[in-house]
Specification:
By secondary structure, this protein is mostly beta strands. Helices cover about 15% and strands about 55% of the residues. The strands form two sheets. A 14-stranded antiparallel beta barrel has the order 1-2-3-7-8-9-10-15-16-18-19-20-21-22. It is elongated and about 90 Å long.
C-alpha cells in the first residue's frame, strides 16, 4: 500500500505553505533556539566563553569580552552540518537526513589603547559581527500503519467545530472561492473549502454549518508526513566595550536580528483494506522578519587566575510576516484524482513576537599560562514569550498556552583549552534543558565538541567538531487544540564542522 501512496504523491503537483494549521508552541520554540555556529574556537569549547572574551562569537554571551582583545582582529567562519533524523510513528521507524555548508560568522574588532598610564579607561574596543544563530535546514519523514482517525477528520473537525456556513465555501471558482472563504471565516473556513471541493465532506441538509464525512471512518490507515525546511536566523551586532582600571571590563551590544524560514509539508494517507482511498494535504509556509535586542555585560579579573562574568540579554522584539498556500488531493476507489490547489497566496498581517530575556553567569580559571577551564550558566524563562497584538483572540489563546506549557530553563556549558607552543587543543560540553513542563515536545539537548587551532605570526586557523542529539515531537497535522493524531518521536543527531580564519592587524 505504501507503494500506491508514493505513486499517488508523485502524480500531484506540490504547492505548499504552513501555518498550515494553527500556530503552536513548536513555532515559538523554533524562533528561540540558538545553535553554536560561530568561530571554531567558540565551537571547540561549546560556547563556554562568557568570562574569556577576546573572540567575536564570545560577544553573544558577554559583550564585555571585546575589551579583552589585545589586537585589531578580523575573522571569517564557515560550518558544515550533517543532520540525521530517525522518527517513530505508529510503531514504524523512518529516517531522513540533511547536509550543507553555511556561513557561520564574519566580523572584526578594533582596539584603541589609552596612552595615559593613570587613566581609568585603559582601552576600549568597537566590534561589528554577523553570526548565524540558528540553521533551519532539515528534512524529516514519518510513516506508520494502524491509525483509526482519518486525515479527512481534520477537515471535518475544522468545518463542524467552527460551524462554517455553507455559503462561505459554496463557490465554483476555486481560487476566488478559497480566498473568500479565508476572508469571511479565516483558516478554518479555508480547510472546510478544501475538504468540500475535494469530496471529503459535504453539508448536512437543513443544518447549516454541519457537515458529514464522505470518506471511510471505519478503517485503519497508513499515514505519513514529509517535512522540508530551509532558512536561518542570524543577527548583526555592534559592540562597544572598555577596560576600567586593571581588572574590570564593561560592554554593550546592539543586535539587529533577521529571520527567514520556509517549510514545505506533505501529509498523506491510504487505507489498509481493499477500500482504496488516498489523501494528500500540502502546505507551504514562509515566515520572515527582523527584530532588535541589546545586551550588557561585565567581566572582572577577581585574581590573576580567575575571571568572573555577568551578562543580561534583553528580549528580542520581532516583527514577523507569514505567507501560506495550500492544496489538497483525494482519490476514492475507482475515481480519478481530485486536486484542489488554489492559485492563492495567503499574506497575513504582520505580527510581533517578544522572546524571553536571558541571564548568564560565567567563570574562567587559568590553571597556567597555557591551560584554562571555563563555564557558563544561562537562565531563560520561555513561558514569557508573547505574541502581539494581545487583543487578537488567536494570540491570546497561544499566549495562554505558552504560559501553561513552557517553563524557566537552564543551560550549562563547560570547556577547556590547552596550548602547546603554536598549537591549541580544545574540548567542551553543553546541556540545554527542555523548555516544556510536562510532555517534552522538544527534549533536552546534549552536545560535545573538540577543537584544534594553529597560530601563525599574524593569523590563526581553527577547526572544531561538534556532535549533538535531541528529541522532538511532531504530528501528521499541526494542531494546538483537539489534536486527532498521535505524535511522532524524532531523534536528531547533528554533526558539525567549523573552520575559522583569524587575522591580527
Amino acid at each position: 500500500m505504501k507503494k500506491n501512496i508514493l505513486t499517488f504523491l508523485s502524480t500531484v503537483l506540490l504547492i505548499s505553505v504552513v501555518q498550515s494549521q494553527e500556530m503552536t508552541t513548536h513555532d515559538v520554540m523554533r524562533y528561540n533556539q540558538t545553535d553554536i555556529n560561530g568561530t571554531a574556537r567558540y565551537k571547540g569549547i561549546s560556547g563556554a566563553m562568557g568570562a574569556i572574551g577576546a573572540d567575536l562569537s564570545a560577544l553573544q554571551i558577554n559583550p564585555a569580552g571585546g575589551a579583552l582583545s589585545n589586537f585589531n582582529t578580523a575573522s571569517f567562519s564557515m560550518f558544515y552540518t550533517n543532520k540525521n533524523n530517525k522518527s517513530k510513528y505508529l510503531s514504524n521507524d523512518e529516517s531522513d537526513k540533511y547536509s550543507g555548508l553555511e556561513i557561520g560568522q564574519v566580523g572584526a574588532v578594533f582596539v584603541f589603547n589609552n596612552s595615559k598610564k593613570d587613566a581609568t579607561l585603559k582601552k576600549f574596543s568597537v566590534a561589528l559581527n554577523y553570526q548565524n544563530s540558528t540553521n533551519f535546514n532539515n528534512n524529516v519523514s514519518l510513516f506508520g500503519t494502524g491509525q483509526t482517525n482519518s486525515l479527512g477528520d481534520y477537515f471535518l473537525q475544522a468545518a463542524n467545530n467552527n460551524h462554517i456556513p455553507f455559503d462561505y465555501i459554496n463557490s465554483n471558482q476555486i481560487t476566488q472561492g478559497y480566498g473568500q472563504a479565508g476572508y469571511y471565516g479565516g483558516l478554518s473556513a479555508q480547510q472546510a473549502f478544501l475538504g468540500y471541493h475535494s469530496g471529503l465532506i459535504s453539508p448536512v441538509t437543513n443544518q447549516d454549518g454541519v457537515y458529514k464525512a464522505n470518506y471511510s471512518q471505519a478503517d485503519t490507515f497508513e499515514q505519513g508526513r514529509l517535512i522540508q525546511s530551509t532558512g536561518n536566523r542570524g543577527y548583526f551586532s555592534a559592540n562597544l566595550s572598555g577596560q576600567l582600571g586593571e581588572r574590570f571590563y564593561l560592554g554593550v551590544n546592539a543586535n539587529l536580528h533577521t529571520l527567514d524560514y520556509t517549510q514545505s509539508s506533505v501529509a498523506y494517507q491510504g487505507t489498509t483494506t481493499q477500500n482504496q482511498e488516498l489523501i494528500r494535504f500540502d502546505n507551504y509556509l514562509y515566515t520572515y522578519g527582523n527584530g532588535f535586542s541589546f545586551q550588557v555585560g561585565a567581566i572582572a579579573k577577581v585574581t590573576d587566575n580567575l575571571n568572573v562574568g555577568l551578562a543580561y540579554e534583553s528580549p528580542t522584539w520581532y516583527t514577523l510576516h507569514d505567507e501560506l498556500s495550500q492544496g489538497l488531493a483525494t482519490q476514492f476507489e475507482n475515481n480519478a484524482i481530485n486536486s484542489i490547489y488554489p492559485s492563492f497566496l495567503n499574506i497575513y498581517e504582520k505580527y510581533k513576537l517578544k522572546t524571553p530575556s536571558k541571564y548568564s553567569a560565567s567563570l574562567a580559571y587559568f590553571i597556567s599560562e597555557n591551560f584554562l577551564i571555563s563555564s557558563d550558566y544561562i537562565l531563560t524563562d520561555y513561558s514569557s514569550n508573547k505574541f502581539k497584538p494581545t487583543s487578537d483572540p488567536l494570540y491570546q489563546q497561544i499566549n495562554t498556552t505558552i504560559s501553561d506549557v513552557l517553563k524557566n530553563t537552564s543551560e550549562a556549558r563547560i570547556g577547556m583549552e590547552y596550548q602547546i607552543k603554536r598549537l591549541t587543543l580544545r574540548a567542551g560540553y553543553r546541556f540545554v534543558e527542555s523548555p516544556y513542563k510536562e510532555t517534552k515536545y522538544l527534549g533536552d539537548l546534549n552536545s560535545y565538541s573538540l577543537g584544534i587551532g594553529y597560530s601563525f605570526d599574524a593569523s590563526r586557523l581553527d577547526l572544531a567538531y561538534g556532535y549533538s542529539n535531541q528529541h522532538f515531537k511532531t504530528s501528521l497535522v499541526d494542531m494546538t487544540l483537539n489534536n486527532l493524531y498521535p505524535v511522532s518521536d524524532i531523534k536528531t543527531k547533528q554533526n558539525t564542522i567549523n573552520l575559522t580564519y583569524t587575522m591580527y592587524f
